[in-house]
Amino acid sequence: MSEPLLVITNSGAGTADEESLEQALAVLREATSVEVQATGDPGELDGVLHRAGSRRIVVAGGDGSIHAVVAALYRRHDLEGTTLGLLPLGTGNDFARSTGIPLDVEEAARSLLEGTPTPMDLLIDEVGEIVVNHVHVGAGAAASRRSDRWKSRLGAVGYKKVNLGKLGYPIGAAITAWNPPVIRLRVEVDGEVVSDFDEPVLQVAIGNGASVGGGTRLTPDADPADGKADVMISRATGPVSRLIYAGRLGLGSHPDHADVITLRASQVTVSGEEFWISADGEISGPERHRSWRLQRAAYSLVLPGEG
Question: In this structure, what is the dihedral angle of CA atoms 29, 104, 121, 3, given to the nearest 10 degrees?
């Protein structure tokens, strides 16, 4: 690669992230010119994107960072035809895991120079919000709400690359498991009702990528380049069923649970009792209706492989 790069970072990144970023930049600068821009809010990000010109945009951060950049490009109508790069500097890095981007930033930088632009799918809801990796409602969203608090508390505790913020989702999930929200929802997949109000649900997950929370493979077979979203509905609402589901979730075998439905879809609609949404780790709600459609090959991402 010889094209110039514009690396976008989070201005709130910690010291450990800055050290990792410098290691990645050293690799990139051996091959091409690199400009780094730190952004702290949507206005700053929009300004940086406006000045990007023909440079390839590289996101240095986690799922929230790539979500922010893709969302901004989508709002600007600049996403189609864009190729992005990703240096995984987040807490969970689930989208990097789903796409096979190395979690070691120096390896990720080398794969960025040598890799192949690959079309990526995108989930878009009816109000124009996008999902790069994963969206879920019910127990998973409750766990994310709790994990956000623990992530911020523990994020300040660590040394160099070891940061306890990564324990936020497991702690949130464990707390939620004791008193999970059980809600009555109607779930429609490609126009067909697959779960209705008479069957309370524990969780509904729609995966463009496979994992959430730093490696929990909620929709283990999801592939953001295959043209379909993976849908997982858990009806494991009883205490015993819930315990079995939780154990299987840790092993990634929960799709085989008797109270779990898995499907592949182009459009998913969830409606009913009030529910919270966790989309790429961003919490919103409560809502009573939300629909997501899959847009195939919405943009490209450089993935490891021969270019």
Answer: 10
